[in-house]
Specification:
With 196 residues, the chain is an all-alpha fold. 77% of the residues lie in helices and 0% in strands. Helix 1 crosses helix 6, helix 3 packs across helix 4 and helix 6 crosses helix 7. The longest helix is centred in the middle third of the chain and has 28 residues.
Amino acid sequence: MKPAPRFRRDGPDLWIESAYAILSREGHLGLTIEQLTTRTGKTRGSFYHHFGSMDGFVSQLLADWREGNTERLARLAELDPEPSVRRALIHGEAMRLDARVEIAIRNWAGTDHRVRDASSEVDRRRLEVLIRDLVDLAEKSGSNLPPRDAEMLARLEYATFLGAQLLAPDGKLDALTDIGRLYDEMLMVFLKNRLA
């Protein structure tokens, strides 16, 4: 199943897509109603019609970010019962994320409690998906992975993903292909050693 395209052209979605473009280039400090109206070609009245306030806009932007960059991926992964296929799907989809937007949101989280809470919730959810898939992969390979080990492996994998974002100034996560492959090879060796 192919993911739905992320670009939308009208209504509130146009404002959200414009916000991502601003975040990727200027960070959260550039995310103003003036910048949004300039980028969309729409009026302040249109902005207030759709969102009511900047707070309403931020809430909808964060909900969209969580849906598009976390929940959508989790649902796609659930479509396949094979853990290695799910992991490959998640890795492929993660590579398509714009690291500049992810970094901008994390920087913003340092100054806004709503963004920090949303970011923490996204991290929790992503780790939850990784832990589940690691436990399933271990079971499939005949190994027992205690919850604490599964959590530590998931945190290691996720920390690598976050670090790769910081090393991707153009927003493209091309290096994750090789990193993911190497991590999975090391993971399989780790799981096999648990059987010995």
